[in-house]
Specification:
The structure holds 2 protein chains of 2 kinds. The N terminus of chain A is likely disordered. Helices cover about 35% and strands about 20% of the residues of chain A. In chain A, helix 4 crosses helix 5, helix 4 packs parallel to helix 6 and helix 5 crosses helix 6. Chain A is α/β, with parallel strands linked by helices. In chain A, the strands form 2 sheets. In chain A, strands 6-7-8-3-9-10 form a 6-stranded mixed β-sheet, with helices on both faces. By secondary structure, chain B is mostly helical. Helix content of chain B is about 80%, strand content about 0%. Chain B contains 10 helices and no strands. In chain B, helix 3 packs parallel to helix 7 and helix 6 packs parallel to helix 10. The chains are: A alpha/beta, B mainly alpha. Chains A and B meet through strand 6 and helix 4 of A and helix 1 and helix 4 of B.
Chain lengths: ~260, ~230
């Protein structure tokens, strides 16, 4: 199996693409009130912006994919791991929710070290990845040692994002994770390096993330109403908005979405 | 550091930083202070100690319920479970931390009770007092487990209310004599402690502690089962 350590160049090679499994595969997935026999597949490397009606449906889908909510029916495979057990996914899947999930009294460095420790990373490797993640998330050196609570929601969100990167995940699930940041900074953070990394970002304003996304999906009535590449959306002369995706959903045959 | 140790140390720090540990320990300190400072006979002392420990046990259960529910609500449980911490390990680590914190307070209050009792006439029988006091640790564990069960399945305020009604109601009913102590598993230990100056039946003490431990095991088992299914 191609692991996360596979170099990006190899991952992009045509021969590798033939054997690539889907990064995310859902079949007939049902959970709660907002997911009803939802099916779709995403190839590795896809950067998907997810719009949902209502927004809670997108949140629920990401939490199911992260293994935090158990589906009532259906099959889900994420990064080659089947089943709802989040505790087996480790560094291969990372989820950042609307709530950062980090204690307010923790400093970003403490949170990053704990994240690395829980993933059983060797000390030297952990420090290297922490430094990288801090740089990518744009956490200032002076903020590293002060409690997340004192830095406000922006520092909390940057920290949660950085902790997610420490595991170098193959699949990154982001649920409006950077709402406290300015749009330009949000777009910079979401344009993560790594062709093998699959990213889903749930957003109520998909147009703001269109520049850093390769695909867009609309979830409506618990199912995939539209799933398309940004290029196809542009060819159809539709904007990457809720309305644009809804218009595409009217044109797209059902079989093409699953 | 193992995952259980990591969660336990996080839990302890969270209890400390949120002042919940302070509230819990103050409840037990208040029990000790009441006994040590108010002059009383052995009968009054033991009655006051039993009521105080039952009250502090309710506080421990409320802290447990609130902690688990709030950690879930704020996404911290999901954060840890998404980083390879099994749900069972998470729950066990929180139980150990909460029980250990309550144990420190409980034992301290019992020690203060013993010191205050050693100056009364007649003096307290050490063996009987130690056995009855140790037996009250078992319902404390059961109360923490029940609080955790409520915190697992209910939102924070709901968990607090349910714990107050179930644990508080049971303890109050037994100590007020409204319900026969034998009908509430574990709560009988407090009634035995309150009545220790009149008689100390070791069989009854062991039975009360045993029932309380059974209640604790059932509460934890149910919390474990519910925690596997609950959305995080």
């Amino acid at each position: 199996m191609l692991a996360s350590s596979t170099p990006d160049a190899l991952w992009r090679a045509p021969t590798a693409r033939v054997v690539q499994p889907a990064a995310i595969s859902c079949r007939e997935l049902s959970a709660g009130r907002h997911l009803d026999r939802c099916s779709f597949r995403l190839a590795p490397g896809v950067r998907l912006v997810l719009a949902a009606e209502p927004d809670a449906a997108g949140t629920l889908l990401l939490r199911v994919l992260a293994g935090l909510v158990r589906p009532s029916a259906g099959r889900v495979v994420v990064a080659g791991i089947e089943g709802p057990d989040a505790a087996r996914r480790g560094g291969r899947v990372a989820h950042v929710g609307r709530e950062p999930g980090i204690h307010g009294w923790m400093t970003p460095r403490e949170a990053l070290r704990l994240g690395a420790e829980l993933l059983d990373l060797p000390a030297a490797e952990a420090e290297r990845r922490i430094d990288e993640a801090v740089e990518q998330a744009g956490i200032a050196g002076t903020d590293l040692e002060r409690p997340v609570r004192r830095g406000g929601p922006e520092l909390a969100q940057r920290t949660a994002f950085a902790v997610a990167l420490v595991g170098d995940p193959e699949v990154l699930l982001l649920d409006e994770p950077l709402a406290a940041l300015p749009p330009a900074e949000r777009a910079r953070l979401l344009a993560l390096p790594g062709a093998r990394r699959t990213v889903i970002v749930a957003s109520s304003r998909p147009e703001e993330l269109a520049a850093s996304a390769s695909h867009a999906m609309l979830l409506r009535d618990g199912r995939v109403a539209a799933l398309t590449s940004m290029a196809e959306l542009a060819d159809a002369v539709l904007a990457p908005t809720h309305e644009g995706l809804a218009a595409l959903a009217g044109r797209q045959p059902r079989a093409a979405r699953g | 550091m193992s995952r259980a140790t990591a969660v336990s140390s996080l839990a302890l720090r969270e209890l400390w930083m949120s002042f919940r540990l302070f509230v819990l320990l103050v409840a037990y300190v208040a029990v000790g202070a009441t006994i040590a400072l108010l002059p009383s006979s052995v009968v009054e002392l033991l009655g006051r100690l039993a009521v105080g420990l039952a009250g502090a046990t309710l506080v421990a259960a409320l802290v447990a319920a609130w902690s688990i529910a709030v950690e879930r609500r704020r996404g911290r449980t999901g954060w840890l479970v998404g980083r390879d911490v099994p749900r069972g390990t998470y729950l066990a680590a929180w139980f150990v931390t909460l029980a250990a914190a309550a144990l420190v307070g409980h034992v301290t209050a019992l020690a203060v009770g013993w010191m205050a009792g050693s100056t009364t006439v007649p003096r307290l029988d050490l063996a009987g007092y130690a056995a009855a006091g140790a037996a009250t640790l078992a319902p404390m564990l059961a109360a923490v487990a029940l609080g955790m069960l409520a915190g697992t399945v209910l939102p924070p305020m709901g968990a607090l209310a349910a714990t107050a009604v179930v644990v508080g109601g049971a303890l109050a009913a037994v100590l007020a004599g409204v319900v026969p102590a034998a009908l509430v598993p574990g709560a009988e230990a407090f009634a035995i402690l309150a009545d220790l100056s009149r008689h100390a039946a070791s069989g009854a003490i062991a039975l009360a502690a045993g029932w309380a431990l059974v209640a604790a095991a059932i509460g934890l088992g149910l919390a474990r089962v519910a925690f596997e299914r609950v959305p995080l």
